[in-house]
Amino acid sequence: MAYKLAQDFEYKGKDWWEWAIWVEASEAELDKIKLVEYTLHPTFAKPVRIIKRRETKFRLETTGWGTFTVYAKAVLFDGEDVDMQHELELEYPEWEIAVTTASDETEEEVISAKAEAEATMDVAKVEVASAKAEAEDASAEVEVERNYE
Predict the structure, then answer these.
(1) Nearest of 84, 78, 93, 80 to residue 57 by alpha carbon
(2) What are the Cα distances from residue 91, in Å, to 10, 35, 64, 79, 116?
(3) Which architecture, in CATH terms, is 4-87?
(4) Taking a C-beta distance cutoff of 8 angstroms, is the pair 59, 53 a contact?
């Protein structure tokens, strides 16, 4: 018997996917399955799901945001159990990667511009402080000259 799990997914945006998992096997082997018990990540509200629909290859459909190992137990009509597992894979579509990269670049540009502006402000503060000190010195000299008159 060759039972294995297969999956598909669709990115819905904002780090959220719709995904499905099902049993791949020959028609004869699928006919031997009474039900499939899937065990999802414990963060799911209902992590254990039982699917009895042979016509969908015991397909489980749900949504989520992260990857994990899905465990499945196919319960056969003859009383035998077949244990399987599958590492759920969720990928961003190419357009999302491009947008994310552009956003990261923009963010880096903003951070760089901010750092440059802060450095310019620091230089300006030093120049103002220097000019202020020079003005105070000049004012003091004028005061001294007035005292001598």
Answers:
(1) 84
(2) 9, 29, 12, 37, 36
(3) Sandwich (2.60)
(4) yes
C-alpha 83/C-alpha 72 separation (Å) is: 6
Residue in the structure block whose two tokens are 């959220």: 16
Enter the pTM of the model: 0.64
Q: CA-to-CA distance for 2 and 58, rounded, in angstroms? A: 15
* Number of other residues whose CB lies within 10 A of the CB of residue 18: 14
Q: What pLDDT digit, counting tens, does each position of 32-84 carry?
A: 999 999 999 999 999 999 999 999 999 999 999 999 999 999 999 999 999 99
Using the structure block, give the residue that is written with the tokens 């120049």: 127
Per-domain residue ranges of the chain: 4-87, 93-149
What DSSP state is assigned to residue 59? -
